Request: fold
Amino acid sequence: MQFKKDQKERSFIEQKSKFEILLCTSDTKILSKMYKLLLSYEMVDEMVKVPMMKWAQDFGYSISIDEWQKLWKNGLNFTTSYNLTENLFKMLYRWHYSPSQLAKMNKKMNSVYWKCRHSVGSYFHMWWSCKKGREFWEIVYEECKKIFKCTFKKKPEMFLLGTVHQQLPKEN
Reply:
């Protein structure tokens, strides 16, 4: 009796999912019922992914689900170059390993970013907040101002993720 009480208090008893309940209780038309259950399943909760949360932490604010959908859709149609598309998706999904991640995997590695040699090499530091990286993005920003003939805020998501479509003014 004490064991069952401990299970309930410490949440060792797992709740059965709708799918498990359906499989255990249904005798007929299981395939049809499973198909209906799969069709009714809401995917909105599943859209929040780890990279989205990590980018939000780095930026200090979140990007809406609609913005993310536009990023993924525009990323696919941005270019016919597979290399550019691959690079965009690697950035969106934070595919590259940062020095801090490598140091966690291998204790012999240093977590300090190799370009600046004084700050911990987080993903965001590596791509945006490092002094050497900021110098590069400043050059890119100045060139973009010349090309587009307008000024705009320097936001990391514009340069790293490509959220330019809404942020640039039509005329200056």
